[in-house]
Amino acid sequence: MSSRLERRRQVSSTQLANTAWLSNTVSALRDTLTARHHSRDFIYAYGHYLRSRVMAMGFIFLLLSPLWLLIDAMMLPEPLHRYTLVGRVVMMLGFALVVWWAWRSEEQIHRIRFSTGTLIALPALFYALVLSLVPPGDSQALIGYSFIPFLLVASLSIFPFTLVESLLAGVLLQGLLTYSQQVAGTWLTPVGLEEQWLLAALLVVALTANHFQLSLLLRLYRQATHDALTGLLNRGALERRFEELEREAARTDKVIPYGLLMMDIDHFKQVNDTHGHSVGDKVLREFARVIALQVRTGDMVARFGGEEFVVVMMGADIINAARIAERIRHAVESAMLFDHDGYPVPVTTSVGVACPQAGETSEDVLKRADGYLYRAKAKGRNCVVSNSE
Question: What is the Cα–Cα distance from 127 to 122, expressed in whole angstroms?
Answer without folding.
Answer: 9
